[in-house]
Amino acid sequence: MSNIKKIKSALISVFNKDGLEPIVKNLNDYGVIIYSTGGTQKFINELGIDVIAVEKITDYPSILGGRVKTLHPKVFGGILNRRENQKDINEMTDFNIPQIDLVIVDLYPFQKTVDSGANHRDIVEKIDIGGISLIRAAAKNYNDVLCISSVEDYKEFNELISKNNCSFSYEDRKRFATKSYNISSHYDCAIFNYFNDEKNVLKLSEKKGKKLRYGENPHQKGFFFGKFEDIFEKLNGKELSYNNLLDVDSAVNLMNEFTDEFPTFAILKHNNACGLAQRNTISDAYSSALAGDPISAFGGVLISNYEIDKETAHKINELFCEIVVAPKFNIEALKILKNKKKLVLLSQNLIRTSPVSVRTCLNGFLVQDKDILTDSLKSLNNVTILKPTTSQTNDLLFASKISKHTKSNTIVLVKNMQLIASGTGQTSRVDALNQAIHKSKSFGFDLNGAVMASDAFFPFPDCVEIAEKAGIKAIIQPGGSIKDQLSIDYCNKTKIAMVFTNTRHFKH
Prior knowledge:
Blueprint: E1 5-6, E2 9-13, H1 21-29, E3 33-36, H2 38-46, E4 52-53, H3 54-58, H4 73-80, H5 86-94, E5 102-105, H6 110-115, H7 120-125, H8 130-140, E6 146-148, H9 154-163, E7 167-168, H10 170-195, E8 210-211, E9 223-224, H11 228-231, E10 232-236, H12 242-255, E11 264-269, E12 272-278, H13 282-292, E13 300-304, H14 310-316, E14 321-326, H15 331-337, E15 344-348, E16 356-361, E17 364-369, E18 381-382, H16 390-404, E19 411-414, E20 419-423, H17 429-442, E21 451-454, H18 462-470, E22 474-477, H19 484-494, E23 497-500
Parallel strand pairs: 2-3, 2-5, 3-4, 5-6, 13-14, 14-15, 21-22, 22-23
Antiparallel strand pairs: 1-7, 8-9, 10-15, 11-12, 11-13, 16-17, 18-23, 19-20, 19-21
Helix pairs in contact: 1-9, 8-10, 13-14, 14-15, 17-18, 18-19
């Protein structure tokens, strides 16, 4: 049995005709018999190439508004018959079924139609039946049949026609069959997710991932599956790494908390903010953010909620950083920042990201709604005799937003809309607080009058006691501990304002 199969006949039925012309001409030059339907048949005819209508095989016209064209035993028999099976050979003769060696087909643009905002009826009509059936049949019988199911494969396929005299190896047929099942499974997943209202089912599909230089470490392989270009326009710099992408994700999620607010600038390192400030200008916001931790800022990811201007760009240029993200960069700023060839500049589009988070766990996955709750003035519950001032309240909410996007256990210290320090990812909340206090003092900050945010409740009043001795005057926390009253009592005794949010923001 020969591994090589020569294409003598082809069924071509596609929605998108881009790039089809050279293939059809090439097949015709090799004497391939071409069968086709509807618009594809007309397209081939207009090229001056002979084509046999599928209706000539089936003795049936296209019916039901084009819903049924190729769904017929003579079409699928021509694809699915086993060339070395004598019973199949006999039935092909008995029922006058033509052999089909090649199937070129694509699918109605279902997801594109969904994304366009079309009505439900139009979306349903873009659920392909005949095309998906042809792909499954041709791919299943890859031992004898070649299946081309994507415009992306046209160039390679056409080159192979010329290179191999219209003959294809078993390996090629299997490889294109694999591509076809990638297409069909992705298509089915999109349809299911459109119809599905249940949250206890997980179906994810990306047809192709982008290979990264490596994963989290050089000995690990890494890929990104997603449409990065839908969110960002890359204006400059090197290819992003696995760790870069994680940092950018954290940066975007954090800065989403400050959309449409005063100029705000954040500097992140290892997915945590090491600097964040809000000021009247983006230049001042950057300077204050950097002052929060100029050491950790080295090699960090920078993000702004405002356009980067010339003044800010000059300041950024003095720092070694990996990535700068902003809604816009003005012309002068771009010119300055592009002097660093490797510096990644990302212009961020306004786009809604996935409402759920997914991560691997054990031999499966954990799925949850994203934490989209943001603590606000109306959600605050004053639990102490002393109420926070307006300025303190602003700082408390500012700190809470940072705490929400910092690894737990976390403590965040803020003063005058500036992140002074945070304790991140500690096994003890006391350790997190002590870390933050030590860090703030090492950079010369005066904690007197500062505020503190915690991502979860205080099981004991020890954190409150430590904070008070450091000069903290207001605290924001979820509350909910059976020993809340001990913390409240201590605050009342030492004249500290404390508010509860009743919302925990763990980030493990």
